[in-house]
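SEQUENCE, STRUCTURE TOKENS:
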Amino acid sequence: MKNDDAASMGEVTGSNQESRLNYYVMYSRYRSTTATTAVDIGAPEGARLLSPISGIVVELKQYNAYGSIPDFHLEIQPDGADPRYRVALIHFSDPMVAVGNRVVAGKTPLGIVHNLGTSQEQLNEYCPGEYPHVHMQINDISIPK
């Protein structure tokens, strides 16, 4: 499927001088969404994944990433946000929350960053070496999957 977002096909780089955070806008691997609807966040294996937002956990399920690697999918309904939108996170293990739990941004541990053990991780195309990552995206539940 063609992605018409020009930024999704070429590399865009930048930095935030205050936090010294470097970033790349990676291509969206020909998904139907644009490259800026999701983010891969590199983190050390074993690091605690803290909630990026405050809200309520509305979905937590185990699935197989890349068809065979045990992984978890979690969705949070953000406080004060349009109820159509949820923040989804994948690529972690050992969930520390359950559906219905309230989470607090930067404080509530959600799980543990784990290594998918695959060179298919897109982040490895941009960073030297191989790094585990957590994938975070915004889902609009009004759009059928």
